[in-house]
Structures are given as C-alpha cells and as structure tokens.
Amino acid sequence: MFHKEGHKIILISFFLTSIIVIFSEQVSSFYIRNSLQIIVLIEFLLILQFFRNPKRNTKPDDSKVISCVDGKVVIVKKVFEKEYFKDERIQVSVFMSPLNVHVTRHPISGIVKFSKYHPGKYLVAWLPKSSELNERTTVVVNNETFGDIMFRQIAGALARRIVNYSKIGLDVVQGSDSGFIKFGSRVDLFLPLDTKVLVNVGDKIKGGVDVIAKK
Q: Beta strand 110-118 with 136-143: parallel, antiparallel or unpaired?
C-alpha cells in the first residue's frame, strides 16, 4: 500500500524505468546494459519503499500520546516554545531517514486549534536549529486530557515538500494521517511539563503505534 502523495511520482518513475530498461537492450555492451538496468530498478524500488504506507492499527486512547512518525528519537528535553505557547514545554524530536515511513500521524485525538506553514531553509534535520530555521508546519491539537499538544513537521536537507492535512477546526482522530514529508525530515512534539515521557534519545519508534508519553 502506497501513500497518495506518491502515486504520481511512482507512476512517472515506472514509465521512465520501463523506457530506460527497454531502450537499454539496444546497448551492445553487456556490462553497461546490465549496470544501467540494475541502477534504474534499484532507484524505482527505493521510491516504492519511501512512499509505502503500512496500515497501523491505532486504538485511540486519550491518556496517551503516540508517535507521529517512524524514526529515531534525537531530542528529549525541556525547552521554551516561543511560536504558540510562549512557555516551557517538553520537546520530543524524531528524525526520519529516507528509509523510514514518512507518513505523519496525529499524536492525539481532538480539535485542531492552530495550523501554520513556515517557509525556510533546508538544513540537515537533526540539527536543533532546524526546528526554527527550516521549512516547517506547526499544528496544535486540543485534547481533553492533555490540553494543547503541538507537533511540527520539519523539512530536511533532502526534503522539498511538506504536506499538511490538519486545518483549523478539524476534528482529528489519533493515528490518522496528518500529512507527509518527502525525502528525509524530522518531527518535533511539544508536551505539557507534567507529562510522563516514555521514550529516550536513541530509541527507534513507529508512528501510530508506539507511545511517546502519558498522563
């Protein structure tokens, strides 16, 4: 199963791969012909792998915050969040390599109170300053148990497009698609200070499955 954001790219890649493989048969050199075919086939498989959208059986639970994305936890610390809350929050950041699933999922159920796109740079996503300098979207969902929870999609050095489905006023369900980031990126999650964080730096987690924090 592939994410809808990849359908066009997959179709174009399929036709280009097919054309290259067919025309490469005219190349007399066995080494060059086979090398070219192997390269384009590997590239096509990597595109398929990137846009995969595995089904995650999320059971909504208002007492828990789940991971928005697949990846590796790179930050767990108290910070001053100055875009929306303007106070201290616990930041949990997850870095996604190009090999990870890049679907972004809602960490909690609730009403979207804030949704904003920010143009910016394309620094490597694991740098702390990428949270404020890179292209990004910020979304705040209000939940009865946790109050306001913020998550931020951040473009990386390879990412050139962030897709955000979370619009103000939308009633969202925990684990449902909130967007997609193409080709390497990071997601920051900002939690209330009284939240019990259940992950540590270095942990590898799955979006829509693994619990980040609870009350």
A: antiparallel
Q: Among residues 67, 166, 178, 185, which one is catalytic? A: 185
Whether 24 is catalytic is no
Taking the chain, what is the end-to-end CA distance rounded to the nearest angstrom? 34
CB 83 within 8 A of CB 138: yes
Task: Say which CATH topology domain 64-214 has.
Answer: Glucose Permease (Domain IIA) (2.70.70)
Tokens of 182: 């193409």
The pLDDT score that the predictor gives to residue 87 is: 95
If one compares 68 and 160, the residue with the highest pLDDT of the two is 68
The structural domains of the chain, with segments of one domain joined by +, span 4-50, 64-214
C-alpha 114/C-alpha 6 separation (Å) is 26
| 47-88 pLDDT tens trace | 787 778 788 888 889 999 999 999 999 999 999 999 999 999
Distance of alpha carbon 44 from alpha carbon 94, whole angstroms: 26
Sign for the CA dihedral angle at 116, 119, 121, 123 comes to positive
Its pTM stands at 0.81
